[in-house]
Amino acid sequence: MQTLEQQLVTYARYHRDRRNIATHFLGIPLIVFAVALLLYVPITQLSTLMLTPALFIAVILSIYYLCLDFRLGALMSLLLALSYTGAKSIYHSWPMDYVWYYIAGIALLLVGWVIQFIGHYYEGKKPAFLDDLRGLVTGPLFVVVELLFLMGLCKSLEQTIVSQAGEYR
After folding, report:
1. Is the backbone of residue 46 left (phi > 0), alpha (psi -120 to 50) or beta?
2. What is the average per-residue pLDDT within 89-110?
3. Using an 8 Å Cβ cutoff, are 140 and 28 in contact?
4. Closest CA to 69 of 130, 11, 10, 142
5. Is 157's pLDDT higher than 80?
6. Residue 47: how many CA atoms within 13 Å on its side-chain side?
7. Which residues make Cβ contacts (< 8 Å) with residue 90, sequence separation at least 6?
8. What's the number of domains the chain is made of?
9. Positive or negative: CA dihedral 95, 97, 102, 103
């Protein structure tokens, strides 16, 4: 498995334009939340825990992120838990036929991807996941790390990424 730094550098090479990164701050959270909505399909219930594909994916991703870096993994796990909880809340309070719930999830997913492709138009490069599917998992982590950089945190990690992926444009 590549290290955290290796994965972020690889992903960052496709994301040096600040406008592209800005679109990712909206597009990727929309995509992650849309996936949580679309995969909130109740399978069975264990006591008070509803088992859904969204829960399985969130747990697997949390373990993956925790293996890369414990602190960032804990933050990503919290964000995934919030996405899952939001999807669960919306699912259980949905006032209409569930067909509309899933249509809303598809609409959010499409809007998120359109925003992503607009960003990559500015970048002049294709999305990272087209060359390596790990980009689909690295993308949410990249957004969180870039937000931490904007907050003045993780300076050493930022310097590593910039030195290997190039300066922001």
Report:
1. beta
2. 91
3. yes
4. 142
5. yes
6. 0
7. 37, 101
8. 1
9. negative
